[in-house]
Design goal:
Elements (H helix, E strand, L loop, with lengths): L13 E4 L15 H6 L1 H7 L3 E4 L3 E2 L11 E5 L6 H13 L3 E6 L9 H6 L12 E2 L26 E4 L4 E4 L14 H17 L3 E4 L35 H12 L7 E5 L5 H8 L8 E3 L8 E2 L2 E5 L4 H15 L6 E2 L9 H4 L8 H13 L4 E5 L20 H12 L4 H11 L34 H6 L4 H14 L1 H5 L1 E5 L6 E8 L2 E8 L5 E2 L12 E5 L9 E2 L4 E6 L2
Parallel strand pairs: 1-2, 1-15, 2-5, 5-9, 9-10, 10-11, 14-15
Antiparallel strand pairs: 3-4, 6-8, 7-8, 12-13, 16-17, 17-18, 18-22, 19-21, 20-22
Helix pairs in contact: 5-6, 7-8, 10-14, 11-12
The structure holds 1-deoxynojirimycin.
The site of 1-deoxynojirimycin (NOJ) has 9 residues, from loops.
Length: 565
């Protein structure tokens, strides 16, 4: 990709805000838009270019706003459209663009479209996916569901509707019915809504589970894995035959490419080949996608709560495959964290007092030196750790509770499940943003407990520390802004099978960078003979100023060199 042809986001870093947990200005224990307005300087100060806002629309909050009942209004929990306009203007004044979360695989069951659709005679019946009971079964009785599919949050993916005697599909909670994208009226309504936000001034969209909008018809039973109550063959609902057509139709109806709007599509079951097609520069589809491949490498066969040790080479090689696969063709997103993932310092780093800061910086170094658009999730920039919950009562997330219940019903050991939740649950990332040693998130009791580490791990303490994590993020973001080789250089993974070191080069014309990181909590020796010569290299950035040569790296030491060519 030539520099001229590169889109603006090839230089950009995105900061994700989960509004409910960011800052509470009105004292109800839940974050809100005014809280965001009050902290825009924090985001701008990091050097980020774009804010991605998790949903703030009107919602019954069954899935913390990913269940929307009015796409064109703000939930009173978060504020008003006037607050929104003020927040957007405040972001723009600071040079920050703002992208909205677009949740259009499903709505809330309280959305007027669905309320109307419940009536079989209504013109909106076909806006959702309604099916009669399985042939030969009494509607509403066990086994009568139209297919044997499970939902992502546990239980069947079908909900029986007494009044009409039919079932509707919900791949997530029963309060999140799936829209029927085969119906052109649905698509037109979604595109009109997107245009309304674009006209209001937003700069793009993060598209929730967007590769589920085209399903493979006819909907049919899948294989049920041993010991599981339901079938979970994701490819029956993901990457369906009309996905590319729907994405292009959306792109043209909203002018996504023409207006250079930022788009990132969250995609389950998305491999490099899919991503090449969806993000190809030769088509008007998406700017980039979020894959789940690299955040599934520490899962055993039992799924998300079956935590397996990460084998570092798997993670390095996975990212490298995406780097190679999309280079010059599509575009990568780069992320370790978001509101659905545990904290990366607890997951891939070392969250002990001794190694937390260095490992947070080492992880940031390797991620931000890859090619693509990096995403920083609120709190990641100060090295926040997992929540440390020990009992089920501490969890609020519908996914955690649903998956726990389903697994216990299927005979799983509750203690093992709790251990899995402590490592992997989404609530790990959702504890309120700790602004000060006292919390500083809210005057009231927060909706989810503060992380017990708040007295030591908080924004103010980190900012005051010359060796803090956020200052290091600022340096990484500056490097990306300043160096074309970081934005556009090709990627080569070195020492792919090394289980301790993460080493790679980036090359653009005459410019070459070497990144070397020790991804362990002990000393690591570097096989210098296998690396490019660094004799005349310039050290651009390091997370530990040990002043020693490269031969032996301290625990979690990371270095970025500019090689002379
Ligand atoms: C993905 C979102 O990131 C997650 O938080 C949500 O629960 C599901 N999609 C359903 O919308």
């Amino acid at each position: 990709m030539s520099e001229l042809a590169a889109p603006w986001w090839s230089k950009a870093v995105v900061y994700q805000i989960y509004p409910r947990s960011f800052a509470d200005a009105d004292g109800d224990g839940i974050g809100d838009l005014r809280g965001i307005i009050n902290h825009l300087d924090h985001v701008a100060g990091l050097g980020a270019d774009v804010i991605w806002l998790s949903p703030i629309y009107r919602s019954p909050q069954d899935d913390n706003g990913y269940d929307i009942s009015d796409y064109q209004d703000i939930d009173p929990l978060f504020g008003t459209l006037t607050d929104f306009d003020e927040m957007l203007a405040g972001a723009h004044e600071r040079g920050l663009r703002l992208i909205m979360d677009l949740v259009v695989n499903h709505t809330s069951d309280e959305h007027p479209w669905f309320v109307e659709s419940r009536d079989p005679a209504s013109a909106k019946r076909d806006w959702y996916i309604w099916r009669p009971a399985r042939a030969g079964f009494q509607p509403g009785t066990p086994g009568a569901e139209p297919t044997n599919w499970g939902s992502f949050f546990g239980g069947s993916a079908w909900q029986f509707d007494e009044a009409s005697g039919e079932y509707y599909l919900h791949l997530f909670s029963r309060k999140q019915p799936d829209l029927n994208w085969e119906n052109p009226e649905v698509r037109a309504a979604v595109f009109a809504m997107m245009n309304w936000w674009v006209d209001r001034g937003v700069d793009g969209f993060r598209m929730d589970v967007i590769n589920l909008i085209s399903k493979t018809y006819p909907l049919a039973d899948g294989v049920v894995a041993p010991g599981q109550p339901f079938s979970f063959e994701i490819d029956r609902v993901a990457n369906g035959p009309r996905l590319v057509e729907f994405l292009e139709e959306m792109n043209h109806a909203v002018g996504l490419t023409d207006k250079q709007l930022f788009t990132v599509g969250e995609m389950v079951s998305c491999d490099v080949e899919h991503a090449r097609a969806y993000t190809s520069q030769h088509h008007d589809r998406l700017g980039m996608v979020f894959t789940f491949e690299h955040v599934s490498l520490d899962q055993g066969p039992g799924g998300k709560l079956d935590v397996a040790p990460l084998h570092l080479p798997d993670l390095k090689k996975n990212l490298a495959r995406w780097q190679k696969g999309l280079y010059g063709e599509g575009w990568n997103s780069l992320y370790f964290e978001n509101h659905d993932q545990p904290r990366s310092v607890s997951r891939f780093g070392d969250d002990s007092v001794t190694h937390r800061v260095a490992s947070a910086k080492a992880l940031a170094t390797v991620l931000h030196l890859h090619q693509g658009t990096p995403f920083v999730y609120q709190g990641q920039e100060i090295g926040m750790t997992n929540a440390g919950f020990t009992s089920l009562e501490q969890y609020a997330d519908i996914e955690a509770l649903g998956q726990f219940r389903q697994a216990v019903a299927a005979g799983a050991d509750p203690d093992a499940l709790l251990a899995g939740l402590a490592k992997m649950s989404r609530d790990n990332a959702r504890t309120p943003m700790p602004w000060t040693p006292e919390g500083g998130f809210s005057e009231a009791t927060p909706w989810l407990p503060l992380n017990p580490t708040t007295p030591t791990i908080n924004v103010a303490t980190d900012a005051a520390d010359p060796h803090g994590v956020s200052g290091y993020y600022r340096s990484l973001i500056r490097l990306r802004h300043e160096l074309p080789v970081v934005q556009l250089g090709s990627f080569d993974l070195l020492l792919p099978d090394d289980e301790r070191l993460w080493v790679f080069t980036r090359t653009l014309g005459e410019e070459k960078l070497l990144v070397v990181a020790n991804m362990t909590s002990s000393l690591a020796s570097v096989p210098m003979a296998e690396l490019p010569d660094i004799e005349d290299a310039r050290l651009l950035l390091t997370n530990l100023s040990t002043g020693q040569d490269l031969q032996t790296l301290q625990p979690w030491e990371a270095r970025v060199y500019a090689l002379s060519s």
